[in-house]
Design brief:
The chain has helices at 16-27, 29-36, 50-57, 67-72, 88-98, 108-125, 141-148, 163-175, 179-188, 197-200, 203-217, 236-244, 311-328, 374-384, 415-426; strands spanning 7-12, 40-46, 62-64, 78-81, 102-105, 129-130, 154-160, 227-228, 247-259, 265-277, 289-296, 300-307, 351-352, 359-369, 389-394, 403-410, 413-414, 436-440. By secondary structure, it is α/β, with parallel strands linked by helices. It is elongated and about 85 Å long. Bound molecules: L-homoserine. L-homoserine binds at residues 162-164, 199, 204, 308-309.
């Protein structure tokens, strides 16, 4: 075993994940040392709640409220950033890099929005920025994409990468409850934050999808080009109708390479509620669990499943990064795994497609008058726009009812054309509601 002194780690923020990291590192010290070849010790902690931090780590660790002093401290080799957000966290990470510290972070919001600046600064200084915990918590999906699947041309990634929304959708389906009621339950159980906006509006999943797309396709992080749609508008009846048609609705983060008619490739990058066939393994991912499905040209389908949040599951990813950093500490930077999996000078400028150019199958639900010719009018519009119908479902009108729900599933179609069809359908006098439009993915 190595006689070198332990790597000295400074921890920024000792909340849920930070305390998990401290506990796991302490508990599994011997095993971790056998793997890393050297000890790893959290020697400094910065947290605004100094008292609580001191109680957690005891007297041997230096505790302070001054995060900037920590990142500038010459006695620290690696900084773990668990503060979150993109304000002070960005300044601290850049300052740590400027002081030649390696950085381990779980901060998906920061990397999705400022990743390019951070990775460039790290490359200039010859330090590593590791971020396994930023996507899908304890699931080693970054490692899988950056190392295990590097032989492949990745075709697509589809992930359930937000546990809060997956819990809400599972409950809506199981109990037939409306979104607002399940959200309140999720908050009561502690799954959803007091302010769950980033989760339910799809922003958290979009941060993660942006990072996955970058390392899967070798592109700069481009959060501003990711289409983001959450689950707040989702209605229980669509979950029910989807079930009847053999589908489940999940909030998916999707990144897909597409060959375009002009011979070039484009990339779809989108987060939205998605119908997926109930028979697919990923459809069985329930509650707060996460799963990422990756299709590579050589390996075919692979799926990664586990806890996407929580103290020790996320700490598992943080410590794995610490071990990686420790192992490659003294390696020539040119021999380390690049932050975005591809060499920085080899990133691709593949175009991220606007939603109007995205291709998907669609679920369309509308309220229609129960009279002759209505369905013919709707299907005529789709035929005129060359949108092919895969299945249709009409709820039998109740006794005395003069209107009913009509649901159509389409084959693959370009979204711009589907939008045009919806406009025309909504203009029909016999169509009495806005058309509910959900995207569907076969994931084959
Ligand atoms: N808020 C996230 C989720 C967990 O619900 O999955 C941290 O990324």
């Amino acid at each position: 075993m190595s006689t070198q002194s332990p790597i000295r780690v400074g921890l920024l923020g000792i909340g849920t994940v930070g305390s998990g990291a401290y506990t796991v590192l302490t508990r599994n010290q011997a095993e971790i040392m056998r793997r890393a070849g050297r000890g790893i010790a959290i020697t400094h902690v910065a947290d605004l709640n100094v008292e609580r931090a001191r109680q957690l780590v005891g007297a041997d660790v230096s505790v302070s409220a001054d995060a900037f002093a920590l990142v500038r401290n010459p006695d620290i080799d690696v900084v773990i950033e668990l503060i979150g957000g993109y304000g002070v966290a960005r300044e601290l990470v850049l300052e740590a890099i400027a002081h030649s510290k390696h950085v381990v972070t779980a901060n998906k919001a920061l990397l999705a929005t400022h990743g390019n600046e951070i990775f460039r600064a790290a490359a200039d200084k010859g330090v590593m920025v590791a971020f396994e915990a930023a996507v899908a918590g304890g699931i080693p999906i970054i490692k899988a994409l950056r190392e295990g699947l590097t032989a492949n041309r990745i075709e697509w990634i589809a992930g359930i990468i937000n546990g809060t929304t997956n819990f809400i959708l599972s409950e809506m389906r199981d109990k037939g409850l409306p979104f607002s009621q399940v959200l309140a339950e999720a908050q009561r159980l502690g799954y959803a934050e007091a302010d769950p906006t980033f989760d339910i509006e799809g922003v958290d999943a979009a941060h993660k999808a942006t990072i996955l797309a970058a390392i899967a396709f070798g592109i700069p992080v481009q959060f501003d080009r990711c289409h983001v749609e959450g689950i707040t508008a989702l209605q229980s009846e669509d979950i029910r109708y989807a079930e009847q048609l053999g589908y489940r609705i999940k909030l998916l983060g999707i990144a897909r390479r597409r060959a375009l008619a002009n011979g070039t490739d484009g990339l779809e990058l989108r987060v939205h509620p998605t119908l997926i066939p109930s028979r697919r393994l990923i459809a069985s991912v329930e509650g707060a669990m996460n799963a990422v499905w990756v299709k590579g040209d050589a390996v075919g389908h692979t799926m990664y499943y586990g806890k996407g949040a929580g103290s020790e599951p996320t700490a598992s990813a943080v410590i794995a990064d610490l071990i990686d950093v420790t192992r490659t500490f003294s390696a020539d930077p040119g021999h380390r795994v690049p932050a975005l999996a591809f060499q920085p000078e080899s990133l691709s400028d593949i175009r991220i497609l606007p939603m109007s150019e995205v291709e998907s199958a669609y679920y369309l639900r509308m309220r229609v008058a129960d009279e002759p010719g209505v369905l013919a009018d709707v299907t005529r519009i789709l035929a005129d726009l060359k949108i092919s119908i895969d299945a249709a479902l009409q709820r039998e009108a109740g006794e005395g009812e003069s209107q009913t729900d009509f649901i159509l599933l389409t084959h693959l179609a370009v979204e711009g054309r589907v939008d045009e069809a919806i406009g025309r359908i909504e203009a029909l006098p016999t169509v009495l509601s806005k058309v509910v439009r959900l995207r569907m993915e076969e994931l084959s």
